[in-house]
Amino acid sequence: MKHKVIGKVVSGNSKVATNVTVFGEKNEEEKIENVNELFRIIKSGDGKIAEIIKKVPKNWIESRDEGGHTLTHWLAKRGDVHLLELVIDHGAPIDEASSDDVGMHPLHWACTEGRLGCARLLAKRGADLDARDLQGCTPLIIASQWGQADMVAFLIKMGATAQILDKNKDSALHWASYKGNLEIVGLLHHLGLPLDEPDAYGQTPLHLAALCGNLNVCEYLLLDLRFPVPLEPLDKNKKSPKDLALEKGHKKLAYFLDAQRPLCQQSLWTFIKHRLTFKACIYWLLGESNPDGMRWPLLIMIFNKLLAHFFYFFYFLPFFYETPLLPINTEQNLNISVNESQKRRLVPAILHAMNFLTQSLAWICFICAWQLDPGTLDKNSVHGALRRAYDKYFDRLVTGEMPPNKKVNAPPPVKNIVLCHSCHIQRPLRAKHCRVRRKCVMAFDHYCPYVGNAVGLYNYRFFYGYCLFFTLSALQWQYVATIYLYYHGTDYSLLSAMGWVALFILFGLAMVIYHTQLVYNNLTTNEHLNVHRYDYLHDPNNPLKFFNPYDKGFCSNLIDRFFPPALEQHPLIHQISAYIDDTPDPSFLLASAPSSSNYLNKKKEDDDPSSLPLLP
């Protein structure tokens, strides 16, 4: 019988190799001749690993590779729960540190990759949740370093000590701040860790975030909390977070920290520097610490409307209704006057009335889109149901409970539930965390700097109305301005204004056409631009094919976008509320949003924040 020999390496001092023969699918033999081959197969995933493990000698299961790692280490890193359980049942060590210069335990390795199933098995079999490596790092600290939010929550719920410090007296929260893992910082804060605890160098999480230029973490610590952390704590070298930021060249972050001082603590020069100088004004127009919140587009839109009103009331109306109209460059008509009825027919009164109406509607829609709540979600939304769902998720991490994916009456089931660690809620489908408003917004479309607000569930209709009526009023204004120039002659100030307004007419037409298509298909801008991120927008039977579960025909789509229900009655939120309060079939929980830690990594690339993976 032909057989395949995979190497022949003699382990230890023995000169005789031990052969383990495993038959493949085609009756082909695989000979594993020593423990090094076993480790190679485990690492690469080649061969029938389960059959190999059942046949190898026990001393191989208990052995280590050349780096001092056990089979348990490698299987915990791979995330294969069944094989990990198999080698443990065959005598593999559960909680032995590696013999290299790091000294990590298998649970540490599981934490680096976010292998929740393996971590749950190791904890069940008696692994020490507070085991330390040679640097004094516990699995909780390792999970924080690697940005594994689910693992952090799991370890704390399982009883890991969150206050343990490494050799430098840094906790998991210090490491999360240092690494810029905003979701970990928010989660640890929610789970009760103090945000102003100093490490061995007297540095708080704010120090470490400023040291590494992690503006998002600094904003969370100073802007998002009900009780912000102290702004200027001093470390053992008598340095504040601002001092560390300046030392590392993070001038933007240092400016942000300096601007957070209360007015009563600012000197006159500091107040002038941050409020009244030309540089401060430019910085304010550009959105200060968040470029997405730039304010100059909003001021430009207000200027456009005021400019149009100025020409209309001080140029057009007096000219058409107070002076005779004579065609220019027509000598034979120099002595011919045009009576009042002729003037009115040139620009009918109905056109003036329509312009007044469209301008008024544009102002109303603009103010509503600017000032109305777009549909923000927080811990108190829907009587606290979203916060209770957030907490319930962590309880399920311990047991590994996973809702069934059958009997789904909601949109097609997807893989993950999405949590927001800044708002500490379970985020419904179609919602997204707005980085400018610093809140989650239901049916988030986009943040529009031209109206100075996020566009979401409640103000989308006013945003669309503003785009429509602004464009119509601008077109009417251009028509009246053209007639004015024909009879009045060249006016360079008016020509300049017409060219300026024409640019915004083109922009407005593009916006109206684009958003009409979105309304027709019941999509948001966020979904349209980021369709690859959201599993619910893909056909369950063909993940590469686009599928929109919310497209119910034009009339239904129009009602859904322009006449939305209250948050408590919104189907996507009501499902979460009903599950938490009445505990029905939890299958709808699968109809949540895209990926978890993978989703977070994508979000980091696009600078968007904070979600969790579902159970492995």
UniProtKB/TrEMBL annotation:
It comes from the Eukaryota. ANK repeats lie at residues 67-99, 102-134, 135-167, 168-200, 201-222. Its main location: membrane. It holds the Pfam family Ank_4. The chain crosses the membrane at residues 298-321, 349-370, 463-487, 493-514. It is an enzyme of class 2 (transferase). One of its GO terms (molecular function) is protein-cysteine S-palmitoyltransferase activity. It is found in: Membrane. Residues 593-616 are annotated as: Disordered. SUPFAM superfamilies: Ankyrin repeat. Its EC number is 2.3.1.225. It is a multi-pass membrane protein. The keyword Transmembrane helix applies. Residues 418-530 form the Palmitoyltransferase DHHC domain. The keyword Transmembrane applies. GO terms for cellular component: Golgi membrane. It catalyses: L-cysteinyl-[protein] + hexadecanoyl-CoA = S-hexadecanoyl-L-cysteinyl-[protein] + CoA. InterPro entries: Ankyrin_rpt (IPR002110), Ankyrin_rpt-contain_sf (IPR036770), Palmitoyltrfase_DHHC (IPR001594). Keywords: Acyltransferase, ANK repeat, Membrane, Repeat, Transferase, Transmembrane, Transmembrane helix. Belongs to the DHHC palmitoyltransferase family. The DHHC domain is required for palmitoyltransferase activity. This is Palmitoyltransferase.
